[in-house]
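Annex B, item 7. Sequence and structure tokens for protein A, then protein B.
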Amino acid sequence: MIAVALGTAAAAQMGQAPVVVDAPAAGAQAPGTVVGPLEIYFIDTEGGQSVLLVSPAIGMYGTRETFLIDPGNLNPPGRDAERIIAALKDAGVPERIDHMIVSHYHGDHVGGAAALADKVTIRRVYDPGAVTPELNGNRESGFMAYLPVRNILPVSVPKAGQKIPVAGLDVTVVSVAGELLKTPLNGVRRSANSQCNNPMRQIQDNTPNNAESIGVVVEFGKFRYLDLADLTWNQEIELVCPNNLLGQVQLYRTTRHGAQWSGSPALVHSVQPRVAVMNNNPTKGGVALTFKTVKSSPGLEDLWQLHWSENPGAQNSAENMVANFTKDDPGHFIRVTARNDGSMTVKNGRNGFTKEYSASRAPVVTSSR
């Protein structure tokens, strides 16, 4: 399936004929036409990362576009690719990825790229560029598995502040390869941030690739989603101090799985999410400090979890807001349906429990299962 994603120039470099892609069917809706809400699938990769966004608008191929933030874990081989495909099927869109971010080169984020490329077309990839060696064989394995795919897929290395052109969405890169956004996002007014009075900083652990993470803000009208992959605690502070360059968001995925090395209170309490989703597993991420930080954030209504946390002091959310309880669970997703007025619906793929969040700050429960 990899060759299908190649454009004319790339195919010529490989000695192949240019690939002919299907044109939109006669009578198809014009590119840019909004046909539904934004769908966001938080896919269970057992403590890795994979977030699938399905655009609200028609793209250049006549269907809603797909935007994947990380293809998940290297091992077990193919598991996370199958879970991504299951999410595509649930969304009712073609089994392809129009845009894929590889946020950084740790195996729990990039390791699933080759398996996914074997199964579906990937049209465009964005990654941090050169790899930062960590002198740890286990940490290099994900990048080594990705490298053959990277050599033949269309890859771009974005800059902080650059847009990723997903139909119907405004996607801005706010961090990449150690570079951070320097000016406020559109519509965000530069002003002193009260959360920045001597914010606590950390000595970073020895995982420099986390500092290379591609982070994005995704906007659909009044709805805003923040995903910083595994960006470090101190870098998070730089994005909001002394001025909050990001503004406030409706939805936030806890940085670095909810581990103690990210999720600075200065960041979380500055962006003030209404809803947060934690991509942890029973023992990875989901530490007591993250629960305390997120649940004390001004305006937070709920924290949803891909896994129940077994860590000491974990303030787990109600069971209806937890998608999986053990590593033996089949990998249930959490789905967010977001609308351009800022409202959203969150659904637990395990039991169908659904909660509505209106355009105001007051949530409404629509399912009690």
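Protein B:
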Amino acid sequence: MRIHIAFVILYGFICTTGQAQQTSISMQFKPRMELRDGYQTLPVDGTTPAFHTNTRVRLQMGYTSNRVEVVAQPQYIYVWGQNSFNSSADNNFSLYQAYAQLNLAGKTIDSTAAIDKVALRIGRQELNYDGGRILSNLDWAPQGIRHDAALFILEDGVWSLHAGAGYNQDGPANFGSNFSKNYYKSFQMVRLHREGKAFKGSLLFFKDDFQQFETDSLGIPYSTEVTGRINAGTWLSYAISPQLSVEGEYYVQKGKDPTGNDLNAWLMNAQLVWKAIEGKLVITPGIDIVSGNDGLEADPVNHAFNPTYGINHKFYGFMDYFYTSSPFGSGGLQDIFVRTSYKINNDWNTWVHFHYFASAGNINDVSDPGNAADPYFGTEVDWVLNYRFDQTTQLQFGAATMLGSSTLQQVKGQPATDGGMGFFSYLQFQFTPKFL
């Protein structure tokens, strides 16, 4: 039924605005076949590989005028066979983005204006900044990440300022303000960015608030307070020459974590970007350190940084062992990496990534309690091959392996033996036709 309603809305949208030159309608159809034998966690004796195909179908309808921009993106995500071929109920439909942007001032309204853009965007939208370390659209996951928010936009020359906020409720209510879902009750953010020729940089402040609950004597939950977590930091990039750039990020987390504990954590990245062979070959060595807790000392303060809304698949290995849905304790992470990409021609390119993973904090060794385990988690190698058939059709093949240690087995809740090897491979098609 929901799918039928979506297509009725789409049909109405086409009929009412199809004659306008600023109307656009496009689609993304992205099926991905995955073979998993140690994805997110190492295989153990008795486990067998898994294979499935997930698919995202996302429509995009847009309207743009000098004064208004409107976007609607319904999507349908599913795994083949998840719903039977004759099922009467299907709950995989959702609205990924739906927002209206009102341009208040700027050159889109008046070409002689002193400032480029002043706008207000309201609705469900992506917050995707600075490569996605802290705020991303998580495009790897079929569902993605989006936020219900109001966003103020100010852009002029090399400078831009985005300031936004969101406030969530379980539903309409006459009294009270409860939000019991497993994410933030509200957020507030400010991002200042400079996009220069040699120097690029951003300052980000993002505060997310979580409603805390306790249970009364009858087992009924009730709200006690709302706690806040502050994410603040910077992303910087400087081009020393056309061939060499240095980049870095540093963020802190303060306040309270989502469970209400005191929080004092940090994250840092430093990397070089070297381009060779007329820019066809890009080599990026670097290091990420994400703070964690000391497993040998009791501390009421949580020191484990959590990049909740980042695209962690991009940064911490394509096998998704860290900061995804598969936990690995709270000791933090060190990642010494080398990422390479090579443009073979206009249609073919390939990536190879190497990662050396270790814990940032002490881990209490289960085989020798009271002493620290070896911090080494494992070594991961990722390989991706991309091919572009044309502007609307792309193919991506990926293969990755993790050579994990006994410490990795321990933090994943497995019997700590001599380590193991995990493997992951996928084949993904992406079709992005434009209808209007």
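Comment on protein B: The radius of gyration is 24 Å.
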